[in-house]
Amino acid sequence: MTRQNRIPSSIRHRFQLTEATRLVVKVGSSSLTTVNGGISEDALNALVGELSAVRNGGIELILVSSGAIAAGIAPLGLTRRPRDLATQQAAASVGQGLLMAKYTQAFGSHGITVSQVLLTADDLIRRQQYANAFRALGRLLTLGVVPVVNENDTVATHEIRFGDNDRLAALVAHLVKADALVLLSDVDAVYDGPPAAGARRIATVERAEDLAEVVIGSVGASGVGTGGMVTKVEAATMAAESGIPTLVTSTAQAGRALSGEDVGTWFSARGGRRPLRMLWLAHLASTRGTLVLDAGAVTAVASGSRSLLPAGITEVRGEFEAGDPVEISDAAGRVIARGLVNYASVELPEMLGRSTRELSASLGTHYEREVVHVDDLVLVGPRVGSAGR
Q: Can you tell me the distance from the alpha carbon of 160 to that of 141, in angstroms, rounded to the nearest whole number?
């Protein structure tokens, strides 16, 4: 775990997955549970068999597994996945233990020890928790353990959570400096349209722009998960843009995928690894407002090397406090960046269009700070198209 953050993965093609040192594999709820919400032992054992072959072949493995809430549905007498947060938390509390018991037994039959690692968004964006998670996962891997990671749904809130385990998996892959990420679900690849209508598989995505005209579907028919192909594409794009190649395919094809066969959709790595907080800010942070800029400020911010000053802001939208994430847009409403703002929304109106020197003289030295410092600012590109989102 000593490689520098900016060094991308050495894995450049899917057939090289067998040469990886460390992989992160994510599996969705729909791949592990029955239509009634319970855990499908046949499905879980089949997946564990494929993963165990990889681990026993010498590749370090982290499994990001959904299924806790779904596994808790039947024991609680529920008929479907709960929509309110309190019942979701209760189902996760019951289901997580059941899920881990099955994984412990299944991996144990292959001579592999597993551990449970529950994370919240705070654990990956706050420096101290990040260091703790990094250290703990690293030690587990050196001991030959397969960490089974899930979001800590029992304590997570709507305001600060990953939203789905696809994004969590992308962040975990970045955290442990994985050579590649594999996202498994009940869909075998990304298609250029509805598969039922004869759409074609997209074998490789070299750039995010390759999918700009593709309409991606939402949650699958099983209804037990929270994601869908949109979140998988977003997570794969997030990882790929941070130097980690990603394969999106079905759980049924896990063995072929991990053997490097031509299945699924391969998202090629591009760029170097970025600080984890910047990934969170670019892809996951729930923004509280918008700062609208004039043309000159747009050019400065878009350069990626300049902080945002009050002189270039023409409008403030929304309510937020200092330290909150905000969107930064041009006059036409096109979002060009996200950043952590240094002032509350109530402070900014009297600052607009004024230089920091002028503000310092009239309002005090407190107002010499940038509105958004360049170190707390990340440029964002176009979002993936979606259906039913």
A: 28
The answer to whether residues 176 and 24 touch, using CB atoms and an 8 Å cutoff, is yes
- Enter the tokens of residue 30: 């729909």
Six token digits for residue 330: 């041009």
Phi/psi at 251 (5° precision):
-65, -35
- Cα distance between residue 249 and residue 243, in whole Å: 19
The 3-state secondary structure of 208-269, one letter per residue: HHHHCCCCECCCCCCCCCCCCHHHHHHHHHHHHCCCCCEEEEEHHHHHHHHCCCCCCEEECC
pLDDT tens-digit profile, the chain (389 residues): 333 344 567 899 999 999 999 999 999 888 887 766 678 899 999 999 999 999 999 999 999 998 888 888 888 988 888 888 889 889 889 999 999 999 999 999 999 999 999 987 777 766 677 788 889 999 999 999 999 999 886 665 544 455 578 988 998 998 899 999 999 998 899 998 887 778 899 999 998 788 877 877 654 444 444 447 888 998 998 899 888 999 999 999 999 999 999 999 999 998 666 777 777 787 767 788 999 999 999 999 998 889 999 999 999 999 999 988 899 999 999 999 999 999 999 999 999 998 888 888 888 888 888 999 998 898 886 544 443 33
Backbone phi, psi, residue 263, to 5°: -130, 160
Tokens in use for 324?
């909150």
At 235, list the tokens.
């997570």
Reported as half-sphere exposure (CB side, CA atoms, 13 A), residue 192 has a value of 10
Residue 251 burial (10 A CB sphere; 0-12, 13-18, 19+): buried
Rounded CA-CA distance 379/295 in Å is: 16
Q: How far apart are CA 292 and CA 328, in angstroms?
A: 6
Residue 201 φ then ψ, to 5°: -65, 135
